[in-house]
Every structure is written in C-alpha cells, then in structure tokens.
Design a protein that fits this description.
The chain is of the alpha+beta class. Helices cover 45% and strands 7% of the residues. It has 54 helices and 21 strands. Strands 12, 13, 16, 17, 20 and 21 form a 6-stranded mixed beta sheet that branches. A 4-stranded antiparallel beta sheet has the order 1-2-3-4. A hairpin with a 7-residue loop joins strand 14 and strand 15. The longest helix is centred in the middle third of the chain and has 36 residues.
Length: 1386
C-alpha cells in the first residue's frame, strides 16, 4: 500500500497545487434563492480555473458579472455572480473559521480537553473578559476606520449587529433542525475532513498575517492575548452532512467560544468540541448569562454527546451510580463499608456504565473529570453514540452495511455536473464516513464493548439462523444476519448450493442450512484426521460471510454515491470491486492508527454488543425503570422495566421515559421534585445491603418469567379459539404454540432447589440447610399434586403454577421470619421488595388454580399473601373452625394495596365455598343442602377486622356484607370505618329504622336510575366477546352535533337520548332536571370514564398540595421521570398488631402524610364560587404554561398542550361541578388513588343555560347557550364538521396517561403486551385561550354537569361504581341509565 498519508492523497485527488498563491479568502452565497447560505471559498483568477470549466462570456448578454470560486467545504469550482460575495463585516465565528481554513494549528499546543477543571474555569473567565474588551473597542471604532481595516477588524471585533444577523439567518430553519431525529433519520457526525485544504503557500501567508495580528492585540492589563485557530470542521461540508443536519451544525459552530483550540494526535479523525455541551458547574456568576445566551443561539445544535440516546442512558447511569440513595452497605467480617450496587468486585462489567457516566452533561463526578484527559474525546463520544443506537436496536447481530446506511452515510442530495463527474471515478464523499465508522468500531472493540464472531461454529449458527415472521399473515422466513439470497451465496461458497439435499433442506421451516452444510461437508485436513471432534470437522465459513457482507457494504456505497434524487442505481461489478478496495484501505488506516496495539486484520463485517457490559447496563436500566414506575406498576406490559436480563428478550420494545421526554413524546411535570442526593451520610438508602439487591433481581426475573408465560398462554388460547371458529379454513401461518424460556428451570426439581438455595444464601440465617430442606419438601408436595393434572395443561400453564408454588412457600418462610422491616417505614417501596414481587406472582396464579379446580391450593395461597398464615387443609365441620385458623401477621399487610387485598378476600371466600362443596360431595353422595355457617362466620370475622382497620376498600366491605344477607346498616352497626366517615358514604336511601328492620335480605344505598329501551342489532355469528351495537335516533338537520352514520354502542346511545330530552325519565320526582322552569335535554357529553375528573385532580389539586407540603422523604421521588409521587399509591390503612388487640397503627400514605394540607385545600375549594373555581383551573394551567422558557420546551409537554387545547372546556366543567362536588371527589382520590382512580361513571354530561329572572319566572327566558359560540374548542362548527369527516376516530377518549403512575386496568388482571398504544407527538402549539367568564351575550350563565353510569340489560353495577355514585350524588348529580329490550319493558 502507498505510504502517502490520507490527507496528501485527497489533496492530490482534488487538484490542489501550489499555484494558488494569489487567491483571496471570501464568503459567498451558494445560490440566488431566498435564504441562501454563505460558505467559505477562495476567489480564483481565470488562469487558475481549468479550461474544461471555463465559460466564454459575451459582453452585454447578462447584466451580472461572474467570478470563479473554489468552495472550502468540497473543493469544487463554481461560477457565481459577483454580487453573491459578501461585503459585510464577518462575524467572529466566520473569522475563526477563516483562520481554521488558512492556518494549521500547532501540534504542540495543548487542547482544552486536557485541562483540569480549575484550569478550564480560569480559561472560561479569561475568554469572557477578552470578549468584553473586544466589544468595548469595537463600539469606539469609526466607520471610516472599519472600512480601511476591514480584514483586520473581521478577525478582531465581534459586532452585536452581526450576531443578530447570524441568529436570524437560521431561525427559518428551526423547524428542520429543532427536533432531534429518530434512529433512522440522524446521521452521526463524521470526524474525517474532506480535502482539498488551502495550499501551503496560502497557509504560510495567512499564518504570517495572523501572527502580526496577535502582536497588535493587547488587553487592558497589557497581557498579550493568544489567538489559535480552530481545526477545520468536516461536518459542515456538503459531501458529508445531510440537508437536515446542516442548520444544526452551522448553529453549533456559531455558538462556539472563540479561540478554543481542540486537537488530538490524529487530526483527520478528530472533531472540534462544542463548548455548549461541556459542564457548566464551574462558570462564574458574571459569565453565566453569556453562556445561557450561547445555549439559546445553539439550541438546535447536535453533537454525539448531546444525543438523546446517549444522554438518557448517561443520566440513568449517573443517578444509579452516584446518587447516595442508591449506595448500599457491604458486609466484610464484623464491619461494613459503603459501595455501589454495581461494582467490579461483584463481577459486574462496568465498561459501558462508566463510559456513559462520563458523558452525562450535568455530571460533576470523577468519571467526567477523568474523561477530559482523553485526547481523542470526540471519537469516544461518537463511538458511544453508535453504541447507544445499537443498544436500542433489535439485534443482537448487526452488519456494517446496515450501520453505515443508517448512521454514517451522507444523505442523498442534488449534485452538480462537476460532482457527478467526480463521483463516476471516486467515492471521496464516502471515504470520511467509512473512516469514521471503522474508527468508532475499532474504538468500541478496544474498550471491550463490541465483538465479532469468536468461532466458526458461532459464525455458522448466526449466519444460518432464520426466524419466522408472522407479520402480514404470511409466515415469512427472515434471516437474523443474512437474507435468503445471501445465505444461498454462502452455501454456494461452501459447496452446497447445487446439492439436491441442500435444495430439499430449504423446505423446512427454520433449518440452519449453513451450519448443516458446515457439519456435513469436511475439509481435506479433517477428512484424513484421526480425531473426530465437532470443532475440527466444521467447514470454515467466516471468510465467506465476511466476503458476502463486505460486498453488500460496497454495493451500498456505490448505490448511494451514484444514485440521484428519485432514482436507484444498480452497481456494476467493477464499481463494487473499486469500492471494496477503498473499504479495505480505510479499514487498514483505522486499525493502523487505532488504540489497539495489534497487527492489521480483516474487516469486522458483523458486530454485536459484548454480553458482559451489556448485561450490566440492562440490569442498571431495569432498576432505574422499575424504581421510576413505582408501586403502581408491578407487572410487565412489554414496554416497562420488568424484563429479563438473563436472556436476550425484546429489549428494543422497552419505552424509556428519559428518551421519550427528550423527544417530546412524554412530559414529566414533577421533575422539579426530584433532587439528587450527593451526601452519603444523611440520606436514606433504597436498598440496605447487596444481598437485598440480589433478592430484588431474583424477583425481577421471576416477574418477567411469569409475565411472559401468561402472555404466551393468552396468545395460545386466542389462536386455538380462532382455529375452532374457522375450522374449515386451514391457516398454516399461525403457530400452534409460543415459546417461553424457563430462566430458573423451575419445571425441574434441581432448578427449584437451586432457586430456593440462592434466595436463602442472601439471608443472614445460620439454619439455612435445615430451612432449605423444609421449604423444598413443601414445594415438592404441592408439585406432586400438580403433576396429577399436568397432562391436561400446557407448558406455559405448568410454568405459571409451578412458579407460584415456589414463590408461595418462599414468601411464607420470609413472612414468618420477618426478614424485612423497611416496608413498614416506607410502604411505597414495595415494588423494590422481593416479598411484594412474590406476593404479586402468587396472586396472579390464583385464577389458574381456580380453573383447574384446585380450590384448596388457591385458598392456601390466598391465606399466605393476605395474612401470612400457613394453612394446608381447611376444616368445615365446626362453624368456628375457619375462624380458629385465622391469624394476622403484621408484615403481610404491607405486601398488597387495599384494592388487591379486598379482591383477594372476596376470592378467598368464594374458593372456600367451592372447596367446602367438593369436600361434602366426597363424604356423601346425597344432595344435602350446603351448610354455609363456617363460611359466613369467617366472613363476619373478616368484615369486622378489615372494616375497622380500613385494610380493604368500602366496596369490598359491601361485597362481604352481601354474603351475610342482612341490610348493610345492620351489618355495620357498631363497626367504625374511617373511609365511610371521611368520604360521607351513605348506607341506605332511607333513614327510617322501621323500614330497615322489616327488610329480611340485603339492601344498601341505590342511585337514581333511568330506564330506556335499546334493541341490539342481531348478529349472525356468535361473538360473545363483542359489545352490543344499537341503532340510534334520527338526527335533526339543525343539530350541530357529530353525525351518527354507524351503529352505536350503549354509551353513545345514552348520549343521544340525554341530548334529545328522551332522558331522564319524567316520573322521577327527585330528578334535578325536572324543575318546572328548566327545560330538559340539550346535554353534551363525553364517554371518558372519569377522564376529566382525573385531569382536574392533576391540574388543580396535586400540584397545589405538593407545593404546600415539602417532600420529607427522598425515596418518594426516585427518578426525574415519575408521573406521581410514589406514596400516592399507598392508600389510607391501619395495621393491626400481631397479638390481635384493638390497637392499630396508621400506614403513612399520601393522605395521611399530607392530611393537613389536603384538608386545608379542600376546605377552601368547597367555599369557592363557580366563577372562582373556573379561574382556578385557568390559573393552574397558565402557571404551568409560564414555567416553560419557550415554545420549544412546551412542545415536549404533551399533557400541557392537551390541557390548553381544552382549557375553556375544563373551566366550564369545573364550574358546573362546583367546589363542593370537586372537593368530595378529590378527597376520595387522595384517600386511595389506586382504588378510586377507576370506577367513575361512564358519561360526563354538561350544558350551559341562562336562567330566568326572579321577576319574570317565564321558562322561555331560561334558554340554553350555544357552547360553540361561548366555549369554542371541540364545540365549534369547524371541529364538528372535521369530526363528521373522520368518523373512524373512536369516541372513547380515555387514555392511560390520564392515570398517574399506573394504567387503567392495573388491578383488573394481567395487561396484554400488545394493548399499549404508540404515543404521538403534537406538532402544533395551540394558542393560549382567554379566561372563561360565566357571561354570554351580557347574561349570566349557569353550567349543569351530571355523571351517568350506563348499563346494558344483562349488566349490573360494580361495588366501586356504587361508591362513586354515592360520593358524587352527595353534592352533585349522578345517576344510572339502564337499558332493556322492548320485550322486557312490556
């Protein structure tokens, strides 16, 4: 290979010569269109222009004069108008760039990155002082003096007017450059400049000129100022950067601090550093405004370090590794010392974690300080950017062609004729990109973060691996690394392409053809070898895979370099061969100058992230995500942090809140409440010891395993049902089963034994061996009972039940021994506790036990998770037999939230009833009546204890009371319940004791009910899972409501009936709508199941309470990305002591911890007028709006934009509900948000009217207000017409982001992984509306609001829905709409 340097080869190729001694450096526009940008160029004489590019000019043909320039960025020569050359004074940014283009920085000069922190602070202060001196001198200079010394002043002064001009130039491109692109749209910046650079003579001449200028520069103190050129930035060159990223890079260049020297040992691979992304901890007070101004100027700049993919990982690593809350104690003999949760001593590979920590922008730790000593910091940042992109990819194996096209290749653009001729003979615009890719890969490999194939067997396994894709219903086979054509090419090279057996093997589904060929065909050496091991008999395949993939990369390079806009170029063989030579040359240069002291080797055609550092990074991110999810998210949904780190899994599907926040897909208004805790001596630790952290990781793996098994079980059930319904049609694309990996091998006895031993080894218990044998014996007894029906179970169901058995007995052991007491102090941290995780696993498996009629086992599991009682059999002979087996364990009452405990107690009574019935059938074949006295006695005992302690919701108490078949007033007589008293829940509609005494069955409070007729549309197919569809009423022509051009569901039909005044029923005497002077109907509504109520709770209540009450515990906000404080999901509850006395201790949940602030706010709210309540909503949203610095920040706050878009509607709803109703609803949500966030009525109806005057009393004066004229927003005609055109949009507006810190069905069973919808970003900022005044057309306006729960003929109210109707009806309007068929009404 030629020993000529890369820079010399490129200068020769570009035509640079020493004849350009008289050229002049200028700034010129590249076109005559509006907004044309100025670029650095050299003004050429006609003699310096090649004859092939000269154009003969005729005098008088054109009114413009033309000149020739050579662009510094590309080296190409262009003919432009003379007036396109800039005559204005150059900004300081251009001065620095001109100096960089004409002067080579001395190699002996130290770079800024090599300075210490104190030296960098001094450097910043000196630079700011010099800049102010230059500005002061520039103001005193006269215009004549500036004209005479234009070139000198352009390199010394920085006029403010030019600063504003430069900023305004790029304001028009802010839409294109303002948002950081997604993975496939952003090109990673390249470090290798594209030559030609200015000739040597010109460099020497400009160097002398700048040396003379430096001598003339004197500060006020008489100190000579140093002026050093910034290296040429290759990223602004047209051949290397996409059109989308150019404005970002140009704005970044403008915002750089002047006179900063950034160098490395290899200038061709280094990038200038952007000072805006450096840490600002050391900036003095007087210089911070200037730094902030630089931030505003370069707000759209992009560097590899500032990438959202890098920063969200760096932030998580910094918090977990540096925050004092995540430090723990390690026992060493009789002493203990503080360590991090992840450390090298425990076998954790922290290569990736430490690297990302050093890149965190706000980091002040030692890792960031160490990283500044690395000379090639830019290459390090860019390579870590590549690592972050690969981390978010599906993988694990990726080829170079894919990485190059996605992240490094120059974007396609329109080419000039000169560029087209140049691209026909070379690939110069791709050389720097390939060099950057190879340098980054070599750097990552030297850091131990990526690797290629380690053996021929691994290469054959990966190259021939095929997966079956079910997308589109085709069952298409896709290769993991190689496509089908590429696999055939590798097989042909192995000698198996034309074999009939190889052709027949392709008929199999997922056969590894490459590995089969490697094992079947032997080399000449192995054929005559005496050994017969697998390793020696494998046919080498790696060189063939590398050859195929490198040709793929070369073809991509040729296609990208030759393709024009809208056209695809088919590469020729000769062109691909030339590209291959160029690729090998660039790889050799990268490996020769790399940090790896090794000889040159072949190109790494395929890479993957190395397993050890990747696993540590995933474990850290899992802890970060689970900690931020809080106790409201303790199940995996396919996108949260409950993932396995022991297997590859689908980590690319995980949604990272830090990444979504930086992309503007999700907002976290509570970020300000998260405060880093650097002091290790005073802060409360999340995890006390390393053993507790090891237990949490075991629990996370168990949670992930059972989540995957439940999802696979549901998927298989759905597939079976589809096949049964379409039995006549054979669908071969649908698989019969879904594979799930048993991580701990729990289906085998040894696996169960090893898991129990692993858990016990983390406990400080001297009797581990004895306890181990006892627990394993109990587990095997239950598993033996399960094996009797294992033949009828699927593998997934068997895994679920076996996991629950193991978790149940390990939990029982830990509850009895009470190993953890942290939950009693901080119950909101149960999502980080192994005991709570095993409780949830056991609770999720109860429905599977019930389906298999294992009621005794299900009841025993429920007794363990509810009371910590070990019961293996139940006695039903004595009415007090079950009550005698009842025992409370205090620690067990912290493991489940109130709603789950209530549902578990209800399931316990049902399962005991079934077990009692089965036991009676075995004893006697006669059909004797079932004696329920033991169940009822046990139910009465549970009701008294749970009602007094508030350990279950009142809705569950209501369900328990139903089993006693007595009026609720009688059942609760003598029992005190705080929930009933605080929320003012009524027990009955009547107050007469005589009527209650005469009742023989169960009765309680019932809401007002409207009865309507709705006949469902008949369906030929039996689809019991689908909802009923109804035919609506004919709409009025003058009705400005959305058209009903399709069938209606039951909620939409109810909305139509209330709007048309067919409901409420006229025979309801107590109806608030039947006042004589108030007309009926004209209700507008939403089917959002309490969405507006939860939104008002977030807007009006939560922020006010959090601001009035300081956060006294740092564990309430563990990460910056929380939708709610963690204690919001801890309801009001009392804990009974172990000795079953009457003394209780309160759990310090959200309501109890902030009781004074909550009650003070609600008391003030209940006394507000309707107008004041409306203004309170407006002021709360306006304060949130003003908290953002600019519209760019507001664009990332999607909930805020939605609130602003319907602010007047929310203000109207708040005024209609009134302060008293809102205070009652907010108190219920604060009392137990996890329970009361669901169950609100289906419909919220609202209308506005102008009431009649007291003097007239005429009902005609009481007319309704047109909400489109008064409110606007969704009620205006334009919006309604648009909705009529887009009827495909569902009317159900309920979203999971209305719930704070949990999903809608968090406690209603397992959430399907595929049910989570993709978030969409709002592209337009709505205009902030005016305040809503309760006046329209100079008349006062009254707003009516009403909640309606809709039920079909065969549906009934849930107990939680009854409680909500009870609470709302106390101060507002709430009712039930019951539909029945016409036959039933007759």
């Amino acid at each position: 290979m030629d020993n000529t340097s890369v820079g010399e080869r490129k200068r020769k190729a570009s035509g640079s010569s020493s004849s350009m001694n008289n050229v002049t450096f200028v700034w010129a526009r590249d076109g005559n269109h509006e907004g044309a940008k100025e670029h650095a160029a050299y003004l050429l004489q006609t003699s310096d222009v090649p004859s092939s590019q000269l154009i003969v000019e005729n005098d008088g043909d054109d009114e413009y004069q033309y000149v020739y320039v050579r662009w510094c960025s590309t080296g190409t020569i262009s003919r432009i108008r003379k007036n396109n050359i800039s005559t204005e004074e150059l900004a300081s940014r251009r001065c620095r760039r001109a100096a960089a283009a004409t002067q080579q920085a001395p190699k002996s000069k130290s770079s800024r990155l090599s300075l210490s922190k104190k030296q960098r602070q001094h450097w910043r202060d000196q630079q700011q002082k010099d800049r102010r001196n230059k500005q002061d001198r520039g103001k005193t200079c006269g215009q004549d003096d500036q004209a005479q010394k234009r070139h000198k002043s352009s390199n010394e002064n920085k006029p403010n007017s030019m600063e504003h001009d430069v900023i305004n130039i790029y304001d028009s491109d802010s839409d294109d450059a303002g948002e950081e692109k997604k993975e496939d749209d952003v090109t990673i910046r390249q470090s290798k400049p594209i030559y030609p650079l200015p000739c040597d003579a010109l460099v020497q001449e400009d160097t002398k000129l700048q040396q003379k200028q430096q001598q003339d520069k004197r500060t006020d103190d008489g100190v000579t100022k140093s002026s050093t050129a910034i290296p040429h930035n290759p990223l602004v060159q047209e051949g290397n950067v996409s059109v989308e990223t150019k404005p970002q890079l140009q704005q970044q260049e403008e915002a750089q601090v002047p006179n900063a020297t950034i160098q490395s040992n290899k200038p061709k691979s280094a990038l200038p550093c952007n000072p805006l992304v450096q840490e600002e901890e050391g900036v003095s007070t007087e210089t911070k405004p200037q730094v902030q101004q630089q931030h505003a100027t370069a707000r759209h700049s992009f560097t590899p370090r500032s990438s959202a993919y890098v920063q969200h990982l760096a932030e998580a690593c910094h918090i977990i590794m540096s925050d004092a809350r995540w430090r723990t104690l390690k026992q060493s003999g009789n002493s203990s010392r503080e360590v991090s949760l992840f450390n090298w001593e425990e076998g954790d590979d922290l290569s990736a974690v430490k690297a990302f920590m050093s890149l965190y922008d706000d980091a002040t730790n030692e890792e960031a300080e160490k990283q500044t000593n690395i000379e090639d910091d830019i290459i390090f940042e860019r390579s870590m950017n590549l690592y972050s992109r690969i981390y978010h990819r599906k993988g694990p194996w990726l080829d170079l062609a894919d990485l190059y096209v996605r992240y490094y290749a120059p974007k396609a653009r329109a080419k000039t004729e000169t560029e087209t001729e140049k691209s026909n003979t070379s690939f110069s615009n791709h050389q720097a990109a390939l060099q950057s890719l190879f340098v980054d890969i070599v750097r990552l490999e030297s850091m131990g973060l990526v690797r290629s194939f380690e053996s021929e067997y691994e290469c054959g396994t990966v190259a021939g691996q095929v997966t079956t894709s079910q997308s589109g219903g085709g069952g298409m086979k896709r290769g993991v690394v190689l496509s089908a054509e590429e696999r055939r090419e590798v097989l042909r090279m192995l000698g198996g392409g034309k074999s009939p057996k190889a052709a027949a093997a392709t008929l199999s589904d997922c056969t590894n053809e490459v590995l089969s060929q490697m094992q079947s065909q032997k080399t000449l050496v192995s054929a005559f070898s005496a050994t017969k091991s697998k390793t020696t008999s494998l046919l080498p395949v790696r060189k063939h895979v590398d050859k195929v993939l490198l040709r793929k990369l070369a073809s991509k390079v040729v296609s990208l370099s030759k393709s024009r806009e809208g056209q695809v170029y088919a590469p020729k063989k000769a062109e691909v061969d030339n590209a291959l030579k160029m690729i090998e040359s660039e790889w050799n240069d990268a490996t020769t100058d790399s940090f790896m002291q090794q000889s040159r080797r072949s190109v790494l055609s395929t890479i993957r992230l190395r397993e050890a550092p990747l696993q540590t990074l995933r474990r850290l991110m899992r802890l970060f995500l689970c900690a931020g999810g809080g106790p409201g998210s303790m199940r995996g949904d396919g996108t949260n942090g409950w993932r396995s780190c022991l297997v590859e899994g689908d980590w690319h599907k995980v949604e990272y809140p830090g990444l979504n926040s930086r992309f503007g897909l999700e907002a976290y208004p509570l970020q300000k409440y998260f405060v880093a805790e650097p002091d290790h001596s005073l802060v409360t630790r999340e995890i006390e010891t390393l053993n507790e952290f090891a237990l949490f990781e075991i629990g996370a793996e168990l949670r992930s395993s059972i989540d995957q098994a439940i999802e696979a079980y549901e998927t298989e059930k759905m597939i079976r049902r589809r096949k049964e319904k379409s039995s006549m049609v054979t669908d071969t694309s649908q698989p019969d089963s879904v594979s799930v990996l048993d991580v701990f091998h729990l289906l085998a006895k040894d696996g169960r034994f090893n898991l129990v031993r692993k858990v016990l080894s983390c406990l400080d218990n001297p009797n581990n061996e004895l306890e181990l044998l006892t627990i394993c014996r109990k587990i095997e007894n239950d598993v033996q009972q399960l094996n009797t029906i294992r033949d009828s179970m699927s593998e997934h169901e068997s895994l679920i039940l076996t996991t629950s058995i193991v978790c149940r007995w390990m939990l029982q052991f830990r509850i009895v021994n009470s190993f953890s007491s942290s939950l009693s102090v901080r119950p909101w941290l149960r999502h980080l506790s192994l005991d709570a995780i095993m409780t949830y696993v056991t609770w999720d498996a109860v429905p599977f036990l019930e389906k298999r009629d294992l009621y005794v086992m299900a009841s025993s599991s429920l007794m363990t998770i509810l009371f910590g009682t070990e019961v293996q059999s139940f006695c039903f002979d004595d009415p007090d037999a079950l009550s005698n087996q009842f025992q409370y364990n205090q620690y067990a009452q912290y493991l489940l939230p109130r709603r789950n405990r209530g549902k578990a107690i209800e399931r316990l009574l049902i399962d005991l009833t079934h077990a009692h019935r089965k036991s009676q059938k075995k004893k006697s074949n006669k059909t004797t009546p079932l004696d329920l006295s033991p169940i009822q006695g046990f139910c009465r005992l549970l009701l008294g204890n749970t009602a007094t302690s508030c350990s279950i919701p009142f809705s569950s108490i209501r369900n328990l009371a139903r089993r006693l078949k007595a009026p609720l007033t009688k059942t609760m007589d003598g029992i005190s319940n705080d929930e009933m008293q605080l929320l003012h829940i009524r027990l009955d509609n009547v107050s007469s004791s005589d009527e209650i005494e005469s009742c023989t069955g169960y009765r309680d409070w019932t809401p007002e009910t409207d009865v309507a007729v709705g006949n469902a549309i008949s369906n030929d197919r039996d689809e019991s899972s689908k909802r009923c569809a109804f035919v609506g009423w004919e709409s009025n022509d003058n009705d400005n409501r959305p058209e009903s051009t399709r069938s209606l569901n039951v909620e939409e039909l109810a909305l139509e009936l209330y709007h048309s005044a067919r409901l409420p029923n006229t025979n309801d005497k107590d109806s608030k709508d039947n006042v004589s002077n108030v007309p009926r109907g004209n209700w507008e509504g939403w089917h959002n199941e309490g969405g507006h109520a939860r939104k008002l709770f977030r807007i009006m209540f939560l922020q006010a309470v959090l601001e009035s009450t300081p956060v006294d515990d740092p564990t309430i906000f563990l990460t910056p990305y929380q939708h709610s404080p963690h204690d919001l999901h801890v309801g009001y509850q009392k804990i009974a002591s172990d000795d079953c006395n009457k003394k209780f201790s309160l759990i310090r949940g959200f309501y109890e911890r902030r009781r004074h602030s909550v009650e003070a706010f609600l008391s003030k709210l209940s006394q507000q007028t309707d107008q004041s309540v409306s203004h309170l909503v407006y002021d709360s949203v306006k304060a949130h709006w003003d908290s953002h610095a600019n519209d760019e920040s507001r664009m990332k706050d999607v909930p805020l934009l939605r609130d602003v878009a319907e602010l007047r509607t929310l203000s109207m709803i708040a005024a209609g509900l009134g302060g008293q109703a809102l205070s009652s609803m907010f108190r219920a949500l604060a009392f137990d948000y996890r329970h009361y966030s669901g169950g609100l009525p289906d419909l919220l109806l609202a209308r506005a009217r102008c009431p009649s005057t007291h003097t007239s009393g005429d009902s005609k004066d009481n007319h309704f207000v047109d909400l489109g004229e008064w409110i606007g927003e969704a009620f205006c005609k334009d919006y309604i017409e648009e909705e009529n055109l887009n009827r495909s949009i569902s009317m159900l507006a309920d979203r999971d982001d209305d719930f704070l810190g949990c999903s809608k069905n968090v406690d209603s069973g397992h959430n399907k992984f595929s049910s989570k919808k993709k978030r969409q970003k709002i592209s337009v900022i709505p205009a902030f509306p005016n305040k809503l005044q309760l006046i329209h057309s100079e008349k006062l306006v009254e707003v009516d609001c009403m909640f309606v729960e809709v039920k079909s003929a065969n549906d009934r109210l849930d107990a939680r829905q009854e409680d909500w109707l009870n609470i709302i009806d106390m101060c507002g309007a709430a009712r039930v709409c019951k539909f029945g068929s016409k036959k039933q009404s007759k």
